[in-house]
């Protein structure tokens, strides 16, 4: 169970859309962004100032391999002259708390960087993990950086 501002969210309440297609068998969506500021130093050991920094966003999705294959085919159809790891697409997810309070994430400019498949002996479904980089992550309408702002 996920707690955000004291409200309980769980993965069973997630609606995930990738490139406009609803994904029903995504068992995990992980994402992170970070801003790494540069440091200006003089002749002493102290930091005098920071640069704005470099923003990076990335994540991964784990889903049933059949759904991953369908998603890759859908992405490939967007630009048939490119490989699926060269094409940008959007990811959006909406989580709903027990009291029906929604929380959303929007990931833009996502590009798949790896496709890991997991097949094990037993009765479990074959799963794939698609890792991605992204241009921007917006959590519940809040951005980590504002383009063009100083």
**Series of H and E elements:** EEEEEEEEHEEEEE
Q: In percent terms, what proportion of residues is strand?
A: over 45%
Assign the CATH class: Mainly Beta
Distance between the termini: 37 Å
CATH topology: Pnp Oxidase, Chain A
Supply the number of structural domains.
1
Could you estimate the helical fraction of the residues in percent? under 10%
Number of helices: 1
- The CATH architecture comes to Roll
Major sheet description: 9 strands, antiparallel
How are the SSEs placed, and which strands pair?
Elements: E1 2-4, E2 7-9, E3 14-18, E4 21-23, E5 26-36, E6 39-41, E7 47-50, E8 54-64, H1 65-78, E9 89-96, E10 102-118, E11 127-134, E12 136-139, E13 142-143
Walkthrough of the structure:
The protein has one helix at 65-78, and strands at 2-4, 7-9, 14-18, 21-23, 26-36, 39-41, 47-50, 54-64, 89-96, 102-118, 127-134, 136-139, 142-143. By secondary structure, it is mostly beta strands. It has a single domain (2-143), classed as Pnp Oxidase, Chain A (Roll), CATH 2.30.110. The mean pLDDT is 85. Strands 3, 4, 5, 8, 9, 10, 11, 12 and 13 form a 9-stranded antiparallel β-sheet that branches. It contains 1 helix and 13 strands, in the order E-E-E-E-E-E-E-E-H-E-E-E-E-E.
Quick take:
The chain has 150 residues and is mostly beta strands. It has one helix at 65-78; strands spanning 2-4, 7-9, 14-18, 21-23, 26-36, 39-41, 47-50, 54-64, 89-96, 102-118, 127-134, 136-139, 142-143. Strands 3, 4, 5, 8, 9, 10, 11, 12 and 13 form a 9-stranded antiparallel sheet that branches. The protein has a two-stranded antiparallel sheet with strand order 1-2. The chain has a two-stranded antiparallel sheet with strand order 6-7.
């Amino acid at each position: 169970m996920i707690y955000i501002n004291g409200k309980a969210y769980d993965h069973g309440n997630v609606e995930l859309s990738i490139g406009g297609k609803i994904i029903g068998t995504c068992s995990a969506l992980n994402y992170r962004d970070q801003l790494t500021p540069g440091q200006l130093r003089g002749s002493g050991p102290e930091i005098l100032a920071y640069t704005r920094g470099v923003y990076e966003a990335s994540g991964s999705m784990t889903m049933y391999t059949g759904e991953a294959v369908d998603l890759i085919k859908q992405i490939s159809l967007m630009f048939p002259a490119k490989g699926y790891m060269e094409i940008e697409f959007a990811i959006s997810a909406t989580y709903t708390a027990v009291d029906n309070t929604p929380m959303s994430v929007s990931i833009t400019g996502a590009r798949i960087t790896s496709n890991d498949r997991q097949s094990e002996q037993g009765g479990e479904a074959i799963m794939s993990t698609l890792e991605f980089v992204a241009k921007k992550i917006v959590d519940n309408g809040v951005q980590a950086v504002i383009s063009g702002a100083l």
